[in-house]
Batch of 3 targets.
Target 1
Amino acid sequence: MMKNLTRPLLRTAAAAGFVLVAGSAAFAAMTATTVTDLNVRAGPGPQYPTVGLATRGSTAVLDGCIEGSKWCRIDVNGLRGWVYAQYLTSDLGGAAVVVQDRRSDLAVPVVTYEAQAGDPPMPAPGDELLGPVEEVDPIVPPDTVRTYITTNPGDTVYLDGEVVVGAELPQTVEVRRVPDYTYDYASINGQPVLVEPATRRIVYVYR
């Protein structure tokens, strides 16, 4: 592993709200892989809007992660933003490891986020989407289901974590029934999701 080198504070444009605190000689080349379809957000939290989607298996440049947080800044195919570190893997000695679990071993740079005027308020603390993500059978819901959810929206619940297929909802989250349909639904972090009733795992995310 290459020895960390102290670097001066670097700033991007103010609108990015991003500061590099520490890095390594390998900083520019540090990469990570998304383990599922993953929202890329404008800021480090589920309350920020999505700026794009990193599909499963995408390779991204890993700028760094916030100290004491599970949010990291990435660049994937020119799309820059924030993603949840639990759903990123990186190479460590020839093995793929979860970035969140091995940040020290990977020598992931530390970054901070400076809140900008007009940023959305932080959600109240909640249970995070339970992980790790498990494989679920893919589904293609009929258009009538989306129509029903659109006309019968529930209150959005904000959770610490990211909305991904295979994540399990805490028991505290209320799900709603879709008439004459196999799956329930809920609105998590601003996105409608379909949920398998028995396992409470997300099987589909409306984007």
Target 2
Amino acid sequence: MPRHLAPLLPLCLCLAALSARAEEPLPPGMEGAEVLPGWEAPDGSRIAALKIALDPGWKTYWRSPGDAGVPPVIDFAGSDNVAKVQVIWPAPQVFDQNGLRTVGYHDEMILPLKITPTDPAKPVTLSADLDMGICHDVCVPVSLELGADLAGPGAPDAEIRAAMAAVPLRQPGLAHCTVEPIADGMRVKAAIDLPEAAGEVALFELRSTPMWVSDSEAERQGNTLLASAEFVPDSGKPFPLDQSDLRITVLSDAGAIEIDGCPAN
């Protein structure tokens, strides 16, 4: 279990399955939820998006939500003619409130999707079950059922394109890591070759094994950012951490970068 939990109030919203827009009353803080149908890509895949619109001042969470956040869970199992869905995550923001750091999006979240059809000649029926948290002074869990029938060439969508343009720039090979056991998990220390920029925050994840990760601590040594974080599995014990599975996202005023894999020093 996470060492810290955000305050949650019981609240569930269920939207009509396969309806592109919410037809039932939305909870406080949420203005809308829909599938943006997007367009057909030259390789036969479909580019679409999930759009969650929030009231001003409300926020929701990134895939790795920080020490006190609520990780979103998206299930596409109810879709038809869908072989694979890749969720594309735009760079998030870091929020510090009441001494806790969370990571996510304010006012709205647009998650582009790259959908690979089982049969490119047939239309796609997308079904997305989404469990997420939305927050203002407190956080509430929300469950959504969104969907749409996606057929035809569609048309480029400015909102989807803007979200895709905001994805962190991939910069492999910039980091080297040391890993050591702690009482309830593992500590990762990363040396990242990166010129200094204002507002730097390093976010750590394991791509294939979601788990609680502490807020990172960081300091500068010239053009090297030294950052560390603790990974705590449900077992609460040290575990064999695969360094090739590490993903580090660095946010700063200079932009966002993503580093996949962090070999030993």
Target 3
Amino acid sequence: MSEAEPARRRRAPAMSLDERRAAIVAATLPLLPEHGANVTTKQIATAAGIAEGTVFRAFKDKQELLTTCLEVAMRADAEVDQITRIPTSTPLTERLAEATDAVSGYLDRLWSLMQTMHRSGFDPRREHEAEGSRKGPREQMQRVSTAIAELLAPEADSLRLTPDLTARLLLGLVFTNRMQGKGFGDEADDAAEPAQLVEVFLHGALNSTGGRKK
């Protein structure tokens, strides 16, 4: 090949339909917190580096794409992985505080996205009910609960209840701790910190001196 002859460009391997759908979803998710359901397929195509028509070859319409994006956003894979990586050799309070922090972040992220979608005219609950086969937050929280129960397993003989039930009760406390202000998704300024919440969960609402801790 002479120096003047342009080098032939190697064509990137074609994606399968599943790979293309996953790539489009990955490009769409960062756009949703700002635009919600008002995000355009042109914006999505630009973010994904594809032609706009490719979006509709991967998804039948924008509604299906948004529903798929929410399904992916609901997944607690990162949180479950974070919890399962917590060493059971560390003190129980530290284990539960780290797990509580992971769950709190998941709830804040999910509720904030749900509110943004709802305000832009997309009802996440209705769309999820229409897709009955898809797993939503309830199933994801069950995965989280199972992971926390495993953290409690070394103390099983010291617990009043089973690790599974204890984990569910802790999640109930974490859930209500994030319910602040005007509703879910608002910044929880008055929420307890993970370590504080775990202390109350393990030792009760009263401290040893009978006065409120600052």
